[in-house]
Specification:
Elements lengths: L12 E3 L11 H7 L4 E5 L8 E4 L23 E4 L7 E5 L3 E4 L2 E7 L9 E9 L2 E5 L7 H11 L5
Parallel strand pairs: 1-2, 2-5
Antiparallel strand pairs: 3-4, 6-7, 7-8, 8-9
Length: 157
């Protein structure tokens, strides 16, 4: 950022491709200079970006006395969990979504052994010369990402 003279306070948003640390390690620095910036991240049922689960997720063992159960036996309908970045402005993305004119986040899930069920976002920018794809690790497969991009702009592929 310093070499290119990029002012992080002017960012409109940040995209985290997926939850692997080498793809989000710089977020703490970004938030130190731009704490309210919108952060798009893959929606996960449980994870580092903050999440929630229905209380039905946890087994409710009625044979235990209330003080030995979660929430003293009276859990809320939805259980909310924190994030590693308290107060950050996360917007979880579950499906392919246009986040600004001509800028689309492609949301896919890996089915590759070793990363099965890993959610990942890819960024598609529609330009006059066609679609430009910016990807993280492409865990879902570059073929699936390109296929999803073709649905955004069929002339680009």
């Amino acid at each position: 950022m310093k070499a290119k003279n990029i002012d992080l306070t002017n960012l409109d948003f940040v995209v985290l491709s997926h939850r692997h640390s080498d793809h989000m390690a710089g977020l703490s620095h970004v938030l130190s200079v731009n704490p309210k910036v919108k952060i798009y991240a893959p929606r996960e049922g449980f994870g580092i970006y903050g999440s929630s689960l229905p209380s039905s997720f946890y087994r409710k063992d009625e044979s235990l006395p209330p003080q030995m159960r979660y929430y003293d036996g009276k859990p809320p309908e939805v259980m909310a969990f924190g994030t590693a970045w308290q107060g950050a402005n996360f917007e979880p993305i579950e499906k392919t979504t246009e986040v600004a004119p001509g800028i689309t986040l492609i949301a896919l899930v890996s089915d590759v052994p070793g990363t099965r069920e890993l959610r990942e976002l890819s960024l598609a920018v529609n330009t006059a010369d066609g679609l430009v794809l910016l990807v993280g690790c492409s865990h879902p497969g570059i073929d699936k990402i390109v296929e999803a991009a073709a649905a955004i702009n069929p002339k680009s592929t």
